[in-house]
Amino acid sequence: MKIETLTNLIGGELINRPYISEVVHFTDNVEEVRRGSCFFAKKISDIPQAIKSGAYAIISEQNLEVLDKEIAWIIVDSFKKAVYNIF
How many helices and strands, by DSSP H and E, does the chain display? Predict the structure, then answer.
């Protein structure tokens, strides 16, 4: 899914201009993150591992520090609403 489409679909705010343009997998489990994943970061402490495992997008309900400018960082009001809109 294209990052722009994803952001619009979930009603999120893209807080950077990422190099990547799409994601191919969605998960909220850091152990399931693989190259191309969109990671729903319920725990901020899981973000570095998600990036290391290949996440192309990080979705959070909190404002975050952009740790990697090449991937997408998206802020949403509600994970539940975002997941519902995706599926």
Answer: 3, 5
